[in-house]
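[Meeting: bench + compute handoff]

Bench side (C.D.) handed over the final construct sequence. Compute side (W.E.) agreed to return the predicted structure before the next meeting so the bench team could plan truncations. Sequence as handed over:
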Amino acid sequence: MQLANRAVMLQSSPLQEFFKKAKTVEGAISLGVGETDFQTPSYIKRAGLTAIRDNFTRYTPASGMIDLRKAAADDFIKGGISSASLGNTVIGPGAKPLIAASLWALCNSGDEILIPGPYYPPFWDLVQDLGGKPVLIDTSQDEFILKGQRIRNLVTSKTRGIILNSPNNPTGMVWDFSELKDLSESLWIISDESYCNILFSNGKYASIASLPGMANRTITIRSCSKSFVMTGWRIGYLTGPEEVVKKIQLYLEMAVGCPCSVSQKAAFVALSEKKGRAEKAMLYALDQRRKLLISWLDERNIPCPNPVGAFYIFPDFSRYKMTSLTLANLLLEQAKVAATPGIAFGPYDSFLRMSYASVSMEQLQEALDRIDKTLK
């Protein structure tokens, strides 16, 4: 018996394979995980516990409970997307299924989807799984800033859309979307804003859907995972043109089902109250780690883009004359430090992604000391 062709083609990403290996190394310090070491704020956890006590443990609509959809729409409106409403906002079990649902609704077999690189690996895999053709926009040629002219040079008669991710995983860069205001009106835009609340220094963020004329062809996706330390609660939310959102709702009904009811109650409190104390403390701690890592790289003349968002940095280790996988394995086996090979994010084989999300300042300094000893 044979599997479907798409199942045969789909392979585990280098990112996942490396994480599996890293977990087997006793005493390793992880600079690989995209998840902070903070806890879900107490007021959000209490909402989840109350939901359980109140027996709110049954199905909700596949697109999410109405109160949460309204709160999500309000969050989009506060972010400048004035077109967001109950009718064109849906909830999903995390951002990733909503990205998949958006591509399902928009991408035909043979369509070209532009993806700025370095990119979050599932973007590439999901397009291929749907029979589309992912096309790389190499931002490394512009200091990891997305330029509108690069996009325009790649648009063909087969180009269906573009996937955006800012603040960016893995570089931490925040893009100026005014660069993209003159994009062809025939292009759909899927904007992954999972890190939009993780900003440092003078970092400012504006949704591309907030620009004139963009909301009617942009699907914007956010998540509670990073902003409210709710990775395991699995809640994402989406807004876009109503004609597309209705099809995404049907996809969720057909293939996904409703998000966890308890998680929805917790997410409602997170989005509607936004007390901010835990979030501010988290941002301060992350910023201190970011500064330490940038300083360490600068002292060693290891080039990298200057991240102002998310909690990653993407340095270029080409001076050590190793592939990213070789270097990552060396650091894991000899230094007991896990950093993600750059090849997982596209053709960036001299880079490593280093996450400072889940290490204390002391752990981060220890990891850097271990790397120093190994590389010397």
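W.E. noted at the follow-up: The longest helix spans residues 277-299. C.D. will use this when planning the next construct.
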